[in-house]
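Troubleshooting entry. The earlier prediction with guanosine-5'-monophosphate gave an output that would not parse, so I re-checked the input for stray whitespace and re-submitted. Clean input:
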Amino acid sequence: MVEKVYVTYNQIHKLCQDAAPKILGDFKPNLMIAIGGGGYVPARILRSFLKQPGAPNIPIQAIGLSLYEQLSDSDVVEEPGTKVTRTQWLDFSSLEMKNLIGKNILIVDEVDDTRTTLEYAVKELQKDVEKARLHEGRSEPTRFSIFVLHNKDKEKKGHLPDDLINDNRYLAAVTVPDCWICYPWEATDIDEHDQLAAEHGVK
Ligand code: 5GP
């Protein structure tokens, strides 16, 4: 059985705080896209640490993705693919997509497991922003970077663009062995969760 480890709100707050100087210095985001639901709380915490005196808060846009195993036609799972579906996306016809053109965009999620979700998010956002850029006749490049709280040290199914990796625009606050991470926002009893975190926290 996969080991379960527990993280507290306090630990997550501090992971965001510790990551903020690098994000500010290297990524210089002027917009965040939080992948729901796990990316929402880290993005909101980060926003406080990314706030610069005299500058407005960095806006947060939300997208929702869900991931499920896709069975083969005959329902025999020889080599099932993993399919990502959009449960919430940015609206192309309104200002939302146009608003991304030329920005430094920080994609935020809680965990990079198989990387399928992050691959999908980056690929699809890049595609849609490029479409919007052409539509608007604009020339500014848009730059994506990624922040996750936890990266699992395992073979990844998904791939991120070479330039994003080579320019060090991927940051995981902590890299953990392959395990199941229990986040506080999933807890129905937060006191018990904190107790379990004290006993079985991320090492
Ligand atoms: P992916 O495999 O695409 O990297 O991750 C897909 C999604 O599965 C994540 O966004 C997250 O919602 C969920 N997930 C993967 N590993 C964990 C984990 O250890 N704990 C929790 N709570 N969710 C996870």
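This one parsed fine. Helices lie at 9-27, 40-50, 95-98, 116-136, 162-166, 190-199.
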